[in-house]
Amino acid sequence: MGKIKMTTPLVEMDGDEMTRILWSMIKEELLLPFIDLKTEYYDLGLQNRDKTDDKVTVEASEATKKYGVAVKCATITPNASRVSEYNLKQMWKSPNGTIRALLDGTVFRAPILVKGIEPYVRTWKKPITLARHAYGDVYKASEMQIPGPGKVELVYTAEDGNKSSVLVHEFQGAGIVQGMHNLDASIESFARSCFQFALDTKQDVWFAAKDTISKQYDHHFKDIFEEIYQKEYQEAFEKAKITYFYTLIDDAVARVVKSEGGFIWACKNYDGDVMSDLVATAFGSLAMMTSVLVSPHGYYEYEAAHGTVQRHYYKHLKGEKTSTNSMATIFAWSGALRKRGELDGLSELVRFADLLEKASVQTIESGRMTKDLALITTLSEVTVLDSEDFIKAVRSELEKMLA
Ligand code: NAP
Ligand code: MG
User: Fold this and answer.
1) Whose CA is nearest to atom 30 of ligand 1?
2) Does 377 share its domain with 400?
């Protein structure tokens, strides 16, 4: 059988530690034997980010704008201990933050469902995709301690010097205060990314906030979503037989738990932070969460939701075997290859992506899995595999399917 051809390169962003090891194993075992893989390679490993003064991250983002689809390995976000561990010139910013800012995107996270790893919520049958707005609110808030009695106001000074103000509180004693903001442009991008991704994946969109209490702030989010939906997406949604609806965040929580899954849950920044961890854990495992950054301009960047699995990497460096789960990283590749295939009209590539996912899922469902899953599975006959043997087991399933 000849290798599957590609016409446009994928933007490939390599990363750090254990996931970097998995990255090359996945390419070696699951991609290169079957595809004439075309990528434009960017090394986002921490050493190269430091060497290039983090220019490589910006270049990789620019390439994503040029080609439209990227696949990214997990990367270290440096903190003080990483600065000394890698002898860094400075504490470089989070690559994901840099990429997200340049692509103006929203991150969608969805679990990979397999039989034998059961969600804690019995009714969930399909994945729930969580979309978190990643700008502003409490993450860019200004806060102040109020030492004693006095008045706090919010003051807006327009460019022409005109002022308007609103009373926050007349303090009788000590307290605290917080001022936060968001931007119409950012909320609009968020809404468009959600609606675009819903059309791409044929799923409903639920957006939830607290507009009954926050009559200006949250209500503004609701209005922007509604307006963009009606003006730009309603027709396409009706054609695709999917729906958009807004509800209160507390109502959403109740509906989500009672649902079957299979929709996109759009959340404001803080709600998304909390709910994405809740949904990930309730589905079973962080190692089974996929993540895709979708920009309203139609760029896609696929990755795993977990980090570089540092603890396993240190074991690997000591020569010990690790049992690190590569599912989410495999699905980052399959997601990117499928999207590339769809954009370029390459049905073979789309089919390969589908089979790669199917082979990975079947491997686990046949009882062969990494340790993290073996600890939580409901299957009774289980073989625990190390990192490399799991990928090899997927390869043999894949070869059977392709034969
Ligand atoms: P992590 O890499 O997600 O791993 C935390 C723990 O979760 C691991 O020690 C392991 O538990 C378990 N785990 C996560 N992924 C797994 C997998 N694929 N297979 C098996 N077990 C898995 O988080 P971290 O150790 O806190 O962070 C390490 C580095 O990743 C940090 O430098 C951080 O900056 C970076 N990070 C990057 C991204 C990204 O690029 N998107 C996201 C988050 C974090 P056990 O040790 O109990 O086996
Ligand atoms: Mg969180």
Assistant:
1) 307
2) yes
Q: Are 65 and 103 in contact (CB under 8 A)?
A: yes
- Return the CATH number at 193: 3.40.718.10
Rg of the Cα trace of the chain?
A: 23
* Tokens standing for residue 109: 């996270």
Tell me the C-alpha distance between 331 and 333, whole Å.
5
pLDDT, residue 111, reads 92
pTM for the full predicted model: 0.90
Q: For ligand 1, say whether the CB of 77 is within 6 Å of any of its atoms.
A: yes
Report d(CA 31, CA 391) in Å as an integer: 11
Which bound ligand lies closest to the C-alpha atom of 96? 1
Q: What is the pLDDT of residue 1?
A: 65
Residue 112 lies in a domain: no
Answer yes or no: are the C-beta atoms of 69 and 63 closer than 8 Å.
no
- Same domain flag for 60 and 209: no
Distance 31 CA to ligand 1 centre (A): 24
Judgement on whether residues 125 and 273 belong to the same structural domain of the protein: yes
Which residues touch 183 (CB under 8 Å, ≥6 apart)? Answer: 135, 136
CA distance 52 to 46: 10
